UniProtKB/TrEMBL annotation:
The lineage of its organism: Bacteria, Pseudomonadati, Pseudomonadota, Alphaproteobacteria, Hyphomicrobiales. This is FkbM family methyltransferase. It comes from Hansschlegelia zhihuaiae. It comes from the Bacteria. InterPro entries: SAM-dependent_MTases_sf (IPR029063).
Length: 313
């Protein structure tokens, strides 16, 4: 088992600004430390979620705190808030592999509480159920979906793009981009049945054609000007997507928050982005025990995370 040592990120200063207060949470919802409401029906049905859902049949009191230092979610949350609070007169964010767009909504809730300003949120998600849930998630958090951009599509690198990809339909809790990269090239037609294993069980889906876009295409749909944050959790193709779009990213994007899915991808992104003048602000290594200040973040069986800042912007 490998070990990684990281200095404590300055996200603690942001968490210290979040007001702690007891709130009555609506029945059927979870609330996080920035006030984001999420339907339990839209969450991965882990044992914790099933227990909380059973206890949330009526409104209940909650005083949410940021995740503790040993929880990797703390640092992803901190990076998103850092990028949002570093924005200028307007905040623009893209979330790739967005699911219900929790990180877009995290940024919106953080700004609402700490630094209100106009914002544009862009969520890109291929799976049909999650895409529909995304609009509802925005509404649940007092955000008008029609004032933002939702794109139902799979993300592919521009050097290997085609207008569609085969994507799983009907299993919204499964990591679909892994299917795109691992299975789609084996099949030239839709309707192929697969039976994936995923926490907490197994399901069966049919691969169906769905639109595919590149990161450059997404950037081109936005108004001219800088993009404050691109967040991506795209199940193993993140290095290829970033490499193919590194020029436009460096020209327009201020922050990158990247979920990484292998040790090789961790290293490949470090070499690629540092070579383009980006600064690695914080990282958790994949498949490693990460020391962050006095805390131990155990990712020995899990994905990593990198927060990059574009020193040119």
């Amino acid at each position: 088992m490998s070990h990684s040592v990281a200095s404590a990120a300055p996200y603690d200063e942001i968490f210290a600004r979040i007001e702690r207060r007891r709130i009555i949470v609506p029945a059927g919802f979870h609330m996080d430390s920035v006030g984001q409401l999420t339907r339990f029906d839209h969450m991965l049905p882990t044992a914790y979620v099933r227990r909380m859902r059973a206890e949330a049949l009526k409104p209940y009191p909650m005083a949410p705190n940021p995740p503790p230092p040993e929880n990797p979610h703390r640092y992803e949350l901190g990076a998103v808030l850092y990028a949002a609070l570093s924005s200028r007169d307007r905040f623009t964010m893209i979330e790739l592999g967005a699911g219900i767009a929790p990180w877009c909504v995290t940024a919106a809730c953080g700004l609402r509480a700490l630094d209100p300003k106009p914002l544009l949120l862009v969520g890109v998600e291929a799976e049909p159920s999650r895409f529909a849930w995304m609009r509802q998630h925005l509404i649940d958090n007092d955000l008008n979906p029609d004032a933002h951009i939702q794109i139902q599509a799979a993300i592919l690198p521009s050097d290997d793009w085609k207008p569609f990809a085969l994507f799983p339909r009907g299993v919204p809790n499964f990591g679909g981009h892994r299917v795109v990269t691992d299975l789609a090239r084996e099949h030239e037609t839709s309707g192929v049945t697969e039976s994936p294993h995923f926490d907490p069980g197994q399901d069966t889906f049919s691969l169906e054609r769905i639109e595919a876009v590149t990161l450059e295409m997404v950037l081109d749909r936005l108004p001219a000007g800088p993009v404050d944050l691109v967040h991506m959790d795209i199940q193993g193709i993140e290095e290829r997507v970033v490499a193919a779009a590194v020029g436009p990213l460096t020209e327009r994007v201020r922050h990158l928050a990247i979920g990484t899915h292998s040790v090789a991808i961790d290293q490949g992104l470090r070499e690629l982005l540092s070579g383009q003048g980006w600064t690695l602000h914080f990282a958790l290594e994949s498949l490693a025990m990460n020391h962050v200040g006095d805390a131990m973040v155990d990712l020995s069986m899990d994905d990593g995370f990198q927060h990059w800042i574009n020193s040119r912007l």
